[in-house]
Amino acid sequence: MANLRRDGLHKLTTRLAAMYGTVVVEDLNVTGMLANRKLARHIADAGFAEIRRQLAYKTGWNGGRLLVADRWYPSSKTCSGCGAVRTKLALSEREYQCEACGLIMDRDRNASLNLAALAAELNTAGSGPVAARGADRKTRVRGRVALKREPGTASAGQTGTVPPQGGTADHVLAKAH
Predict the structure, then answer these.
(1) 117, 80 in Cβ contact below 8 A?
(2) Are 7 and 50 in contact (CB under 8 A)?
(3) Where does residue 19 rank: exposed (0-12), middle (13-18), buried (19+ CB within 10 A)?
(4) 165 Cβ partners below 8 Å, 6+ apart?
(5) CA distance 89 to 109
(6) Alpha carbon distance 88, 96 (integer Å)
(7) Assign residue 91 a region: left if phi > 0, alpha if psi is -120 to 50, beta otherwise?
């Protein structure tokens, strides 16, 4: 089983890196997702860290780049049509419904369009990280929102990190605070 999984991950990441010049992934809170007993086994089997690791070096090999959206970027909560950001979106809601413009779309399709727009924004803005589209409107409707800081993350006010010279093309897209 381990060899089949490893082979499948290599084939997937090789195909993605060869087909697309830019690949966008989200920095997810996998530890938090593992706390959900219904999802834990499926999440652990997915091998997210290995997929990201392989995409990082394979996109570099193919002359592409890997963009990593900040874990706080509201890709699922943002309307891909008008840019409005919802304050809450339960995992059970599989269809995104915008209260501002009335757009109704599959939740994952909506998130993918937002991540594509984020990558396009980076392409037009030049090199380096950019603030996430709509991130300045993140859930601050009812006062301040506490943001959890993981060890080794950027300090407040810092919008991203600069990749090491000669390293991979792995860029981190962070939201501005």
Answers:
(1) yes
(2) no
(3) exposed
(4) none
(5) 15
(6) 11
(7) alpha
Cα gap 168→65, rounded to integer Å: 8
Q: What is the C-alpha separation between 66 and 20, in angstroms, rounded?
A: 10
The whole-angstrom separation of Cα 80 and Cα 131 is 16
pLDDT in tens, 62-115: 999 999 998 899 999 999 999 999 999 998 899 999 999 999 999 999 999 999
At 99, give phi and psi (nearest 5°). -80, -20
Closest by Cα among 92, 73, 86, 91 to 147: 73
SS3 for 43? Answer: helix
Question: Which runs of E-coded beta strand occur in the chain?
Answer: 22-26, 65-69, 95-97, 104-106, 170-173
pLDDT in tens, 145-158: 344 444 444 444 44
Residue type, 161: T
